[in-house]
Amino acid sequence: MATMLLLTFLISSLIMVTVGLAIDSMEILLLGIGGQLSVDTSDVEMASLDFGLLTRGQPLAVLHPVSAQDIARVVKEAYGSNQGMTVSARGHGHSINGQAQTTNGVVIQMSGWKGGNKPPRPRVWAEERYVDVWGGELWIDVLKSTLEYGLAPKSWTDYLYLSVGGTLSNAGISGQAFNHGPQISNVYELDVVTGKGEVLTCSEDENTELFHAVLGGLGQFGIITRARISLEPAPKMVRWIRVLYSNFSAFTSDQEHLISLHAEPSNQKFDYVEGFVIVDEGLINNWRSSFFSPQNPVKISTLFPTGGALYCLEIAKNYHESTAQTIDQEVEFLLKKLNFISTSVFTTDLLYVDFLDRVHKAELKLRSKGLWEVPHPWLNLFIPSSKIAEFDKGIFKGILGNKTSGPILIYPMNKNKWDHRSSVVTPDEGVFYLVALLRSALDNGEETQSLEYLNNQNRQILRYCDEAGIKVKRYLPHYTTQQEWMDHFGNKWDRFYEMKMEFDPRHILASGQRIFTPTFPSLSNMPS
Ligand code: FAD
Fold first, then answer.
1. CA 52 / ligand 1 centre spacing (Å)
2. What's the pLDDT tens digit per position in 463-492?
3. Cβ within 8 Å of residue 443, ≥6 positions away
4. Signal peptide span per the entry (predicted)?
5. Ligand 1 centroid vs 221 CA: distance in angstroms?
6. Which residues form ligand 1's pocket by a CB distance below 6 Å?
7. Which of 97, 169, 437 for mutating ligand 1's site (highest number of atoms within 8 Å of CB)?
8. In terms of pTM, does the model score above 0.70?
């Protein structure tokens, strides 16, 4: 009875949005699915929204798959039909601009599960030092599973409640990227359901083109159902250090010096290098960093240069019981070469797992104040190192003023740690920076915190870069026309297009990225 109701609802929904629907094919599709297909309001509502809260795209149904085969059945049906059905994988829905949404089809809810069956649990291969994980697994759960074997992935994101498939579709970066490369540089093998509904294993040696295309591929070539991720022995503890600068060029010189040490032995470099800009100290601006504790010896406000910003270098060194004796000397040796404000050293020691999971604590704090589920007009940019000083002058000391409405991260990475064969695009220089403007819009009557104000400011920032000849590449990109996408990919576009034609020729997958329009003739209301 429930299945019949579900069928009737879904089919009538499809009739409303498509022309000439072949009902039979939908029936086959639905009857053949092992995972749970749902049209529950709560499922559909969740899949209609994302962390950005900027766009809404309501799917017709949501599939909770437990295997690659569940997904393949849906994709095959969509591929074979003429009805314009699209399929979008959704990890944890932490996109900003509707990238995991679709209005004409099914959202495959990769993270979490419903009902009795579950997707496969992480499988750790301790001797080989890798783990096989379901594409919807959250990184926090990957960490917990591998720690049982004293192992952990090498490259992270700052926040762990993101799915493996979601971050591998972008790059996955954090303070370890200078050393280990982004998360996409730390994957050995993938299982992927292509846009034709084939389930393919791919790696450096097998289906190589698909492997590289999918990594950083914005979900365009296939749905990742399994990833084999490289592991290392997990450190026990972390010494987490923050030091301040009022001089931007001293700050960036030190950051670049620290990432240049990537090839040194581990006792002669930090394991994590990030940084952020401090313009003011409110909770919303600083949610990533409750670290400057009340017992700080220095009041940060006394260090602010007039009309300027402060820059905080954030570094960390991992250690184990066996290296606990030498950690003080190693850190002291590295700090001695840096030019920060000498009275501004903030240090804390904590468990490795607590360090990696640090942003979740901030999330809980913001949630408790109603400041998490608000619109997030985030802007993430990769900036060539040669232009970062100009960016500082024009943006941090210019356009932004002294109100930021969220953390602003800034840290450099080594391009040689990124595989040029992946789909992701980065600036054409050996070192480039991530600048992440992670801002929240609040409806509190303050103009500078409104969504409209922040959106305008984002446009101003991009215009400034364009006019100043700063060749930025957007990370977690979002565009609305194919020409903009072609400009974004530059000389990678032809390849990207070729791969799309090979692996998702009908443009079924991840239409929420708005790169390609599905090619079904009966479609009239897909994003262009
Ligand atoms: P979703 O938003 O669900 O999906 C993103 C895209 O990937 C969609 O196009 C979707 O169709 C596709 N996709 C999802 N799953 C799969 C799959 N299995 N196979 C193929 N395609 C798939 N990023 C960083 O690199 N570093 C950070 O430190 C970082 N911190 C963040 C902190 C917060 C609080 C938030 C909200 C985001 C952060 N991000 C960071 C960005 C994040 O990596 C991306 O938004 C990522 O896409 C989110 O993963 P998700 O599982 O929520 O993906």
1. 11
2. 999 999 999 999 999 999 999 999 999 999
3. 374, 450
4. 1-22
5. 16
6. 50-51, 88-95, 99-100, 110, 135, 157-159, 162-163, 165-167, 169-174, 218-219, 223-224, 476, 510, 512-513
7. 169
8. yes
CB-CB contact of 249 with 385 (8 Å): no
Q: Which residue has the tokens 């059905």?
A: 85
The label of the residue with tokens 């295309």 reads 213
- Token output for 348: 């804390």
pLDDT given at position 16: 42
Beta bridge partners of 90: 109
Collapsing DSSP to helix, strand or coil, 273 comes out as: strand
Is 295 exposed, middle or buried (CB count within 10 Å of its CB: 0-12, 13-18, 19+)? Answer: exposed
Give which of 278, 72, 94, 101 is closest to 194, Cα–Cα.
72
- AA identity, residue 171: A
Buried b vs exposed e over 118-127: b needs ≥16 C-beta within 10 Å? ebeebebeee
Candidates 66, 75, 95: which one to mutate for ligand 1, based on the most atoms within 8 Å of Cβ? 95
C-alpha dist (Å) from residue 25 to 73, 78, 159, 238, 420: 12, 9, 41, 55, 41
Return the structure tokens found at 74. 């849906």
Question: CA 464 to CA 445: how far, in whole Å?
Answer: 27
Positive or negative: CA dihedral 89, 92, 98, 101: positive
Terminal Cα-to-Cα distance of the chain (whole angstroms): 39
Q: At 299, list the tokens.
A: 């009041």
Q: How far is the CA of 111 from the centre of ligand 1 (A)?
A: 11
| pLDDT, tens digit, 9 for 90 and up, residues 199-256 | 999 999 999 999 999 999 999 999 999 999 999 999 999 999 999 999 999 999 999 9
What are residue 199's phi and psi, to 5 degrees?
-100, 115
Query: What atom in ligand 1 is closest to the CA of residue 111?
Result: 51
SS3 of residue 54 by DSSP = coil
- Residue-level length of the chain: 528
